[in-house]
Amino acid sequence: MEKKVLIIEDDKDLADLIGMHLKDIGCMVEISQEGPAGLDLVLNNPFDLIILDLMLPGMDGLEVCRQIRTEKRTVPILMLTSRSEELDKILGLELGANDYITKPFSIRELMARVKANLRSMEAVKKEVLSRDEQAELRFGSLVVNFEKRRVMMGEKTIELTAREFDLLAHFVRHPGRTYTREQLLNEIWGYQFSGYDHTVNSHINRLRNKIETDPAKPDYIKTIWGVGYRFAEPGELEA
């Protein structure tokens, strides 16, 4: 089945070049040269991957990414930028980008990133179909509905960002299993971002503030000192 890719890039020549190579590997391609128009395409059409430039007219790539994730869209986002500052990378990851490549880049490297992100999303879809036939899982007062991407604590709806939901969903699917920060980066962010452990820490802290009765003494997301984090097993919550 053909993969559908949206390129949001204001440099027409670069967008056309990327599009040509995507078509060579069997992808259907659409191109938008403005932030608002690109966002409208994402919100009204299904895509398997978005290649998103950071500097765009009308709305920058970070804001486009933020609004896509606010709408609970799980489509992989590969960000392009001519800037290499660490802050841009961190913001992109925090807002939900799956991958990041800095201009100038080789087309070969970009295509390798595209294929990796498409494979990762396909693996996630297969895993969900094979392992998560249940529409939701319950742990104590916490209920996670995967189909609706909704989290409840008792009768209260817990508002999570797309990345916070992905992290929590990963935990509840593997209760009792300990993950290092590097493993969580690889599993949730979809690419090995060495040196971004603080991104995991900040997401864990925000999740705890939203789902724990006392974030300083968490019942759900446990810290395993010197290793990483794990989600409590049902027996621990019952106790």
Condensed summary:
The protein has 239 residues and is α/β, with parallel strands linked by helices.
Can you put this structure into words, describing what you see?
The chain is of the alpha/beta class and 239 residues long. The chain folds into two domains: 127 residues, Response regulator (Rossmann fold); 106 residues, Winged helix-like DNA-binding domain superfamily/Winged helix DNA-binding domain (Arc Repressor Mutant, subunit A), CATH 1.10.10.10. The strands form three sheets. It has a five-stranded parallel beta sheet with strand order 2-1-3-4-5, with helices on both faces. α4 links the parallel β4 and β5. It is elongated, with a radius of gyration of 19 Å. 31% of the residues are buried. The mean pLDDT is 86.
The tally of strands reads 12
- What is the CATH superfamily label of the largest domain? Response regulator
Number of continuous helical runs = 9
- Give average pLDDT, whole number: 86
| Spatial order of strands in the largest sheet | 2-1-3-4-5
Our estimate of the beta-strand percent is 15-25%
Order of helices and strands: EHEHEHEHEHEEEEHEHHEEH
The gross shape turns out to be: elongated
What is the CA-atom radius of gyration, in angstroms?
Answer: 19 Å
Distance between the termini: 48 Å
Weakly predicted, low-confidence segments: none
Structural class: alpha/beta
CATH topology-level name of the largest domain? Rossmann fold
The appropriate CATH architecture of the largest domain is 3-Layer(aba) Sandwich
Per CATH, the class of the largest domain reads Alpha Beta
Number of domains: 2
Helix content class: 40-55%
Main β-sheet: number of strands, strand sense, barrel status? 5 strands, parallel
